[in-house]
Amino acid sequence: MCVHRVDKGEKPACLTSISSDAIVFGDLYDPSSEINKKLKEVQSRQIRADLNLNTGVRYSGF
Amino acid sequence: MSQVRYLQIDGRSTGYLALIAGLGVLIVAALLSVYYMEHNGHWVTGMSNRIVWGTPHVFAIFLIVAASGALNVASISSVFQKKLYKPLSRLSGLTALALLAGGLMILVLDLGRPDRLIVAMTEYNFRSIFAWNIILYNGFFAIVAVYLWMMFERRMNKFSSNAGIAAFAWRLILTTGTGSIFGFLVARQAYDAVIMAPMFIIMSFSFGLAMFLLILMASYKWTERDLGDVVVDRLRKLLGVFVSAVLYFVIVYHLGNLYLAENSGVESFMLMNGGIYTQLFWIGQIIIGSFAPLFLIYHPSTKNNRSMLGLASVLVIVGGMVQLYVLIIGGQAYPIEMFPGMTVLEGYGQIASYTPSLPELLLGVGGFGVALIAIAFLVKFLPFLPESLADKVADPHTKA
To answer: Could you give the count of Cα atoms lying within 13 Å of B217 in the half-sphere of its Cβ?
Structure first.
């Protein structure tokens, strides 16, 4: 996810090119991060949740 | 068995210079390809976000797997105390190091962002099998280098057997690591099988010995040194056993997958209706890479013919590359089951398409170039090759 930008403290390119809040980017390990707050509010899914991988991308709205 | 004398090769003949020049051309072509791919970005290759490991990875993994296998000849001597193999040990260690260097060069030069390599080294991820493999490769270089030094240095000779055992253990762990990259990829149905680890080990025996045999026969023929039938015949039989063993593992792997109903889709893709991958599997891997070499190795009309053994080795190598192509690229082309129990209406449900591009191919071939040029240089500057491997020198059962 644009690791070269994230390492410099910037946001991934996809995030800067959308005007809505369709994508939330943040640190899943940080309990107070925006992404974690959002995950508490909305229902989300992981790809292959059956494999128990705790993937870094979550999807909501389906 | 008389004393074995090791001697550098002369390396001044036109043939030698032509060999170096030819390999140099391959390496330059690879570097130009790397420049082209880096400059334009990886979209100019056949690789995509579905097929992330392409032709360069097939070459790289082949060379890495063959590298650990090429060390076997030395291991048979120092671990299993077979005297016949002892004079071949130095070349075996050298071949192992050179092939690994060629394979790793491909991997490093294919990274889309070489600058990230530093991050991968400084921010080490101990939970990643890829990260484990980096330790395994570097460790292999170090252990085999020490092993070679103990073989070369007379006063260290007494430790060479212990170093050989350490190198043998390490190489088994290394290939277990390489095979497990695929074995542990649970999300891909063609991979996800623990049998990958031992299968890669036995593949390494076969591919590594085929490479070693070709390098051995070529160096003795081109330097006009004696290479007796005893050595060649022993290696021929060994290659036959290894090729059969690979075939056995391939059969068990597919049987195991066929038995699991969830894998019936990927199996019918690989074995029956996968188009190019099915053809490559049956024609390239099974007929050209397994049956044909076995015929050449065992049939009375061809088994005592060195050219035929050379051809068999080439076929084992070609078949091995095809095997890795089918596994690596075919395995990625088959779609991942992203949301089990749900129907994918559009997007990632189809077979991914992949066509190898010329720069990818040139980079891969350049890996072979690097490995072979390293061997050609080092046998000129250090005494790796016995002056003679004629039967009266090499055969432990001959009285000198």
So the answer is: 21
pTM value is 0.93
Q: Is A48 on the interface with B (CB under 8 A)?
A: yes
* Crossing angle of the two packed helices B160-183 and B55-70, in degrees rounded to 10: 150
Interface contact B261, partner A, CB < 8 A? no
Structure tokens at B255: 């049987």
Which pLDDT score, from 0 to 100, does residue A60 have? 87
- Chain A residues whose CB is inside 8 A of the B119 CB are 7
- Residue B187 near chain A (CB below 8 Å): yes
Q: What is the ipTM of this complex?
A: 0.78
Q: Is A29 exposed, middle or buried (0-12, 13-18, 19+ CB in 10 A)?
A: exposed
d(CA A2, nearest CA chain B) in Å = 11
Domains present along chain B, CATH in parentheses? 14-224+359-384 (1.20.1630.10)
Report whether B392 contacts B87 (CB < 8 A).
no
Measure the CA–CA gap between B68 and B72, rounded to whole angstroms: 7
Chain A to chain B, count of Cβ pairs less than 8 Å apart? 15
Q: What is the mean pLDDT of each run of 10 residues along chain B (400 residues)?
A: 82 94 98 94 91 96 97 94 93 98 94 77 84 92 96 89 95 95 89 94 98 97 94 97 98 94 91 95 98 98 96 98 97 87 76 95 98 97 94 76
Q: Does residue B41 sit at the A interface (CB-CB below 8 Å)?
A: no
Contacts of A6 in chain B (CB under 8 A): none
Cβ distance of A51 and B186 shorter than 8 Å: yes
What sign has the CA pseudo-torsion B200, B202, B206, B212? positive
